[in-house]
Amino acid sequence: MENLALDRNTRAIFAGSLGRDLAATTAIGLISSLVTLYIIATTDAPQLALSAVIISTFLYVFLSAMNTMDQFKAWIADMDDQDSASHSGQHGKKAPFAMWKTIYSLCFLAMAATQLLEVWM
Questions:
Q1: Which residues contact 37 (CB under 8 A, 6 or more apart)?
Q2: Which of 20, 36, 37, 74 sits most deeply, having the most CB atoms within 10 A of its CB?
Q3: Residue 92's CB: how many other CB atoms inside 10 A?
Q4: Tens place of pLDDT for every residue, the chain, 121 residues?
Q5: Are 54 and 115 in contact (CB under 8 A)?
Q6: Is the pTM for the entire model greater than 0.85?
Q7: In angstroms, what CA-CA distances link 117 with 83, 104, 111?
Q8: Longest CA pairwise span in the chain (Å)
Q9: d(CA 42, CA 10)
């Protein structure tokens, strides 16, 4: 019985860390985009260097968020019978991961694309 309780505690900690990771990735992406917008609006920063920052930020956010969302999906798939029967487990099994990933990607892609257009036009 102790191992079962320890396993549940470990799974709860893992879920919390996944949520924290996704929130941190999103915050980094948004803050970086805001700083980049400020630089675009107020300075004549080199176009190539600024483009590298925009593209690197997009790639980091995209890859990190997609990995974290895939980990969430795997975590839900690995639930035992008791967790799967809970309200959270049932809700998680119905989660529209493909839609979330698409919308998340499109939002950050739109930010990167419009920033690059602003830099180069």
A1: 115
A2: 36
A3: 19
A4: 466 666 777 877 888 898 899 999 999 999 999 999 999 999 888 999 999 999 999 999 999 999 999 998 988 888 878 777 888 778 888 889 999 999 999 999 999 999 999 998 8
A5: yes
A6: no
A7: 47, 20, 10
A8: 64
A9: 48
Residue 117: which residues within 8 A CB-CB, separation 6 or more?
none
CA distance 64 to 57: 11
Q: Among 26, 114, 94, which residue's Cα sits nearest to residue 66? A: 26
Rounded CA-CA distance 92/101 in Å is 15
| Contacts of the segment 30-39: beta carbons below 8 A, 24+ positions apart | 32/57, 33/57, 33/108, 33/111, 33/112, 33/115, 36/115, 37/115
